[in-house]
Design brief:
Blueprint: H1 10-18, H2 20-43, H3 49-59, H4 61-68
Helix pairs in contact: 2-3
Length: 74
Amino acid sequence: MLIAMSSPIDEPAELVRESLLYKEFLAEREEILRHKWIESEKAGHDIGFEKALLDWIVKHRSSWRAQRHPGQVN
């Protein structure tokens, strides 16, 4: 019978993957990629990640965070 054991080197990586901050980063990144896809479809070409990121921050980030964390001050 083999028992999988994590090495001490794996522990920091696991802590990061399970952290709330990392999960928030992934959720925000997913929204930016969705925005990039929508805006690229409208434009008829790939607008690029940087343009999508800046556009999403200016137009949507505050409301997205407010919906995600009601009652929390951003």
